[in-house]
Design goal:
One of its GO terms (cellular component) is cytosol. InterPro entries: Dynamin_N, GTPase_Era-like, P-loop_NTPase. This is 50S ribosome-binding GTPase. The longest helix is centred in the last third of the chain and has 73 residues. It is rod-shaped, with a radius of gyration of 46 Å. It is about 55% helix and about 10% strand. The protein has 21 helices and eleven strands. It folds into two domains: about 250 residues, Rossmann fold (3-Layer(aba) Sandwich); about 170 residues, no CATH class. It starts with 7 loop residues before the first helix and ends with a helix. By secondary structure, the chain is of the alpha/beta class. It has a seven-stranded mixed beta sheet, with helices on both faces. The protein has a two-stranded antiparallel ribbon with strand order 4-5. Strands 10-11 form a two-stranded antiparallel ribbon. Helix 1 runs antiparallel to helix 2. Strand 8, helix 9 and strand 9 form a beta-alpha-beta unit.
């Protein structure tokens, strides 16, 4: 088991895992499952031997795949036949067996042959011999010190191990054979596709395997086997035709090796290519990087590259305006204005007619919004405070009309459409869901926002007390004048001698008190009425601002912030995809 520092592959795997997590519910389940599988498979492959390169031989029935496998290994390991599938289970040729068992167990390859060097007849020279014949070379050309990995007391710079797999035919009539090929095509480090001159253009091979694996061209080799069946002049033409078809599959730069397992022609260049790949020990990482890029591409298949518009101040303001109206704020504002006018009339109007205003119910009290008053008799202040707690309090606003509900729904939908404009359809849908994530509780939260807002109910104006005092003084003067005149009239009726009432400029003071008090009170009431209306309008405007601010908090927390979070999630998803696919 080997450990790894943070490498480009580690970073891309983490980015792919992040993208899959962020894409849950937004990306197709098939793409998500594929990404998770890639991450899991990559981590398992890296946990196992990183010193071995696994090369799989894939081919159709009759392509000579097993014969080529034997020719490349230099050992008659695989059973070969020209007319029917002979490989029913994966077969492994292993050089450098130490540490390979867990890897082969993971590959589910039970048929294994451990080889120490090239077979008889294979020249022990060149890269193939240097890679596969280390033990053979030590045994036949040098003295070993008996310690693994050391020769003549010096550290041996031995390349990593190699595992060649002979696999069942991908076009076998046995379903299990095809399942094995499909599974191992996603697990091996290097893919060697063996074709023959008769079926190199087979549609099943190109459509079902080569095209989907085009992203793995860096770890793909193609062998045109059985060239001994072609005239020497035709080999180049068929090879060129095969390269053209591969280019259409997206594999333009994949090397093609003409070879013949029967004559041995072209086998040595193929051995060298495999040996070179194994010596680099990077095939596994290259394969996994290709898997990550492919999975990232699938996750972003529906991403047109657009950027959502995002939440703007104007968009949020329009949403708040619509919710303000839908929540019945206008009704509350009117109630605040009427409540102040009613209370102002009671405090500054002519005392003789104030009783009539008491027949009219306070509109804020009718809506359940008049709080902060002195506790009623029999109610202690703790009980009054609990009654005023907005969390325990609901308004008595009229039930939202269908038009108001439609207005709120339309505003939320419009907000989601505007802010999500530019995002792919799946993410626009998720943005719409985010905008409506609190739709069920939104009416109650708006109602609570209204009830918790200080509307200034119960708070009068300082000048009310002055006017009220003047009204009562004027009324007292009028009452005193009437009482004086009454005493004078009663004394005259009983024939009592009374001094004449004092006068001012010929007008008796009792009369002046009566008419002056009444006139002053009525005039003061008339003069105060416009002032009361003016202040009522100011109070209403202040209440609207406060209520709108309260609605704005709800709109931001329950609509704007979830939408913003979803848009940020999409941005993080795109960044993770870009990191996984290597775009930055």
């Amino acid at each position: 088991m080997t450990t790894h520092d943070s490498s480009p592959l580690d970073l891309k795997l983490a980015a792919l895992e992040t993208a899959a997590r962020l894409g849950e519910g937004r990306v197709t389940e098939e793409a998500l499952a594929s990404a998770r599988q890639v991450v899991e498979r990559a981590r398992e492959r890296r946990r196992l031997s990183a010193d071995h390169t696994v090369v799989g031989f894939f081919g159709a029935t009759g392509s000579g795949k097993s014969s080529l496998f034997n020719a490349v290994t230099g050992h008659p390991l695989a059973r070969a036949a020209a007319t029917r599938p002979t490989t029913s289970e994966p077969l492994a040729a292993v050089w450098g067996a130490d540490g390979s068992e867990p890897l082969l167990d993971w590959l589910e390859v039970s048929h294994r042959h451990q080889l120490d060097g090239p077979a008889a007849g294979v020249e022990p020279s060149g890269p193939w011999s240097r890679l596969l014949g280390q033990r053979w070379t030590r045994k036949n050309g040098r003295q070993s010190d008996g310690q693994h990995g050391r020769t003549n007391g010096r550290q041996n710079d031995q390349p990593g191990g190699l595992i060649l797999l002979d696999l069942p035919d991908f076009d076998s009539i046995a379903v299990r054979h095809r399942e094995i090929v499909t599974r191992l095509a996603g697990q091996v480090d290097v893919l060697v596709w063996v074709v023959d001159p008769q079926k190199y253009a087979d549609a099943a091979l190109h459509r079902e395997f080569l095209e989907p694996l085009a992203a793995h061209r860096g770890v793909t080799l193609v062998v045109l086997n059985q060239t001994d069946r072609l005239a020497e002049a035709d080999v180049e033409a068929v090879t060129a035709s095969l390269k053209g078809i591969l280019a259409q599959d997206g594999l333009a730069r994949v090397p093609v090796y003409p070879a013949s397992a029967t004559t041995g022609a072209g086998v040595e260049p193929l051995r060298s290519a495999i040996a070179e790949v194994a010596q680099r020990r990077s095939a596994a990482s290259e394969r996994l990087l290709s898997d990550v890029r492919t999975a990232a591409k699938a996750l972003g298949a529906e991403d047109a590259g657009g950027v959502p518009a995002g939440v703007g101040k104007a968009d949020e303001a329009r949403l708040v305006d619509a919710l303000t109206e839908a929540a019945g704020v206008t009704t509350v504002v009117r109630a605040v204005q009427r409540s102040y006018r009613l209370e102002g009339g009671r405090r500054t109007g002519w005392p003789m007619v104030r009783w009539a205003t008491r027949l009219r119910q306070d509109p804020l009290r009718r809506l359940g919004l008049r709080r902060g008053e002195v506790p009623q008799r029999g109610m202690n202040r703790v009980s009054a405070s609990a009654a005023d707690d907005p969390r325990l309090h609901r308004s008595s606003l009229p039930e939202r009309s269908p038009a108001q509900r439609a207005q709120a729904d339309g505003a939320i939908r419009a907000f989601a459409e505007v802010t999500g404009a530019g995002a792919p359809d799946a993410w626009r849908s998720s943005i719409r869901r985010a905008a409506r994530s609190h739709a069920d509780t939104l009416p109650d939260e708006l109602d609570q926002a209204i009830t918790s807002t200080d509307l200034g109910a119960g708070k009068g104006s300082w000048w009310w007390h002055v006017v009220n005092a003047l009204q009562w003084i004027a009324l007292a003067a009028a009452v005193a004048g009437l009482a004086w005149l009454g005493v004078l009239a009663l004394a005259g009726y009983f024939q009592f001698e009374t001094p004449p009432a004092p006068d001012v400029e010929g007008f008796p003071i009792p009369t002046l008190l009566v008419f002056g008090g009444l006139a002053f009170g009525l005039l003061l009431a008339l003069l105060m009425a416009p002032l009361v209306r003016l202040v009522a309008r100011n109070r209403a405007r202040r209440a609207r601002r406060r209520l709108r601010a309260a609605v704005s908090v709800v709109a931001r927390e329950r609509i704007a912030e979830p939408v913003t979070a979803e848009i940020e999630r999409y941005g993080a998803f795109r960044e993770a995809l870009a990191a996984a696919s290597g775009r930055h």
